[in-house]
Each structure stands twice: as structure tokens, then as C-alpha cells.
Amino acid sequence: MVKNISVQPKDIYKDPYGYTYSEMVSVLGENEAGKIYRELYSRSKNTDKYRTITIKEIFRGVDTQKYAFELSDGYCIETVSIRRKTGTTVCVSTMVGCPVGCIFCASGENGFVRNLTPSEIVQQVILVKGKVNRIVFMGMGEPLFNYDNVIKSIHILRDRKGINFPTDGITISTTGPLPQMKKLREEHLKIQLTLSLHATNQRTRDSIMPHMKGYDIDEVVQSVLSYSERHNRSVTIAYLLIPGINDRENDVKQLGKWFRDKNVLINLLQYNETDCKAVRRPNKQELVAFRDKLNKSGLTVKIRESRGGNIKAACGQLVSRLNRHNESVVPKKIHIAGLEKESSNNDGYSNRLKSNKRPYTKSKIRNGKKGESSK
Ligand code: SF4
């Protein structure tokens, strides 16, 4: 075994959830690594002595719970657990804030603060109660903009000596940054992939997801289809239906052109209320009418039931109120009715990941409106 000389024993003792078993063995030897792994992952032995995130609050809904976790630097993230008949799904965050700035998502309004470490991602799964049988990277942040840490966390979660989580129970939901999509295609991981598409032409997508400008919509679609072909598995297209914006005949036609006869499921989503006034939530009839049109053009479509709205835990609502005093690095108001106003901060890939230098206030405020995240 090759010893990883860049990792020192003190690094592992400080934050062991960030290492695979074999990394630990290469630095600490088998006996010590085995002992620590048992302490980390066996239900009876696991203690909080190695944890770097703590539960700050739990918001309880009927079948949904939202956890607010405090990180070691005082920032907060949120993680949602959804109880289903077959087990529990955990929706994890990958960043504090998010650089993409989707207009329908409260997380984007906070801007990007920092990436989560592999350990912080893994601990969200460990700390959630219930028998977790599905992990979705759909919380706060764009997972593929935190590529290395997300992939590392998956390797840790599927480590046989640890949780041994089945890889095909893991879904990454992404807006589709092209270089990372290409990299992901080449990984030997059998994860499920969801593309948050939300539009069928460049202009509309750029308006809805202002910081994904520069990624050609057709290439983004081709990259997810290429993933599907390479791994011989179905992919999901998430499509947030916005009446008057992306529910026209042309949208039906274009979706048919891209996805007919492909191994694709289209998930129609309803906007969950945030402070964005430019997006209207479709009613049931509008959703059903659009679904029927897509069905007629040969597509497989599901209307995705949104859960957790009552505790501001549904998609687009997970802005941690504990971080509320942070000011945004992305523009708050994009008017999609005209579709011509652009982000004042849309200056390419590197700037997408510039962190917000203004520190979040470790506020004790409890009564704000927004929560945080997701796709
Ligand atoms: S929907 Fe996802 S990618 Fe878009 S701003 Fe929210 S967290 Fe970021």
C-alpha cells in the first residue's frame, strides 16, 4: 500500500470522517484504522468525539425533517430527511450558499460562501435519524462545482469498512457544468444523475439560472444523454414548470426532440414559494395539461410531489435562517417576464466560485422568512 505522505496522523484524528479506510490504514496502520472506523460507524460505539458538525435545530414536518447543522466555523447548513415506506431519503448540502443563483431558489440568493468538505457531507448522512437507503445531492449548492469533495464523500460513504452504502442509491442533481459533466461520465461510479434543465432554449435558461450562462443548453443536454449511454442507465430531467415561460408548444416540441426514445424520465416540478415574485407556481391543471402534452409526444413524465413545504424544507426553500444576515453576491431580482435583464455578476466560471467575503453573522435571530436550498 502506498503511504499518502501529505496526510499526517494528526489530520486524521482531527477530522476522521474525511478519510476512506484505506487512506487511514496507509497512515495509521490496520489496527488503529480499524478501531477508529468502528468508532465512527458502528451504531453502538459511535460517539460525537470526532464530529465537526453539530445539530443546531430540527424542524419537524409530517414525514419530513429539516436539520440545521452548525459547522466548526459557525456557518449553518440544512439537510432534509424524508421518510418513505421503504426507508429514509437524505437530501444533503454540498456548499454554504450557492453560486448558480437560480431565481426560484432561496439558496442562490445568499451567494456562494464556501464548499463543504467530504467530512461535512458524510456527517450529514450519519447524523440523520432513520434507516437511510437513498442519498440525494440536492440540497444547498451545486454539487459539481464542489466536484472533488463530492466524489470523495461518495467514496467514503460506499466504503465497505464503513457505511457500505450502495452507490446506485446515490443521486447527484446538477445544473450541468460541462467540464465536470465530462469528468463525471468517466468515473467508475454507478450513481444516478438528474439534470436540472428548466428550459428548452438558451435565453430562457440564462434568465432562470443566470450563473450557468456560457454553457450551451444543447451541449448540456447532450452531456447528460452521453452519461446515460456510457453507463447504460436512465437519467432524470428536472423541469420546474413556470406558466407562461417554459410551458409553450415549442417547449413540448424541443423536449420531444431531445428525449424521445431516450432512457430519460422527466420530472415536472412545482415552484415552492420563496421571495421571488417573478415565478408563479402552476396549479394542478396546468401541470397535468403539460404532462399530457409531453406524454403525447412520446415522453415518460412524472409530476414530482413536493414534500416539506410546511417546514420550508422543500426544493428551493432551504435557506438557513441562521445565516440570514449574509449579503448576496448574486443579483436578487431578475425579471424573467422580459427575459432581458442580466446578472451584474455573470463573469464566467472562476467568478462563479468567488466566495462572499462578507462573513455570515452568527445571528441569534429566530424569526426570519427564508430558509435555504435546492434543485
Ligand atoms: S437550485 Fe440548486 S443550483 Fe440553483 S441556486 Fe438553488 S442550490 Fe444552487
Key phrases:
2 domains, ten-stranded mixed sheet, 375 residues, two-stranded antiparallel sheet, alpha/beta, 12 helices, 19% strand, RNA methyltransferase activity, binds iron/sulfur cluster, globular, Methyltransferase_A, TIM Barrel, disordered C terminus
Structure, described:
The chain is α/β, with parallel strands linked by helices and 375 residues long. The protein folds into 2 domains: 50 residues, no CATH class; 323 residues, Alpha-Beta Barrel (TIM Barrel). It contains 12 helices and 14 strands. Strand 10, helix 10 and strand 11 form a beta-alpha-beta unit. The longest helix has 15 residues. It is globular, with a radius of gyration of 20 Å. The two termini are 40 Å apart. The site of iron/sulfur cluster has 14 residues, from helix 4. Iron/sulfur cluster (SF4) binds next to helix 4. It is found in: Cytoplasm. This is 23S rRNA methyltransferase. Its cofactor is [4Fe-4S] cluster. Keywords: 4Fe-4S, Cytoplasm, Iron, Iron-sulfur, Metal-binding, Methyltransferase, S-adenosyl-L-methionine, Transferase.
What would a concise description of this structure say?
The chain is built from 12 helices and 14 strands. With 375 residues, it is of the alpha/beta class.
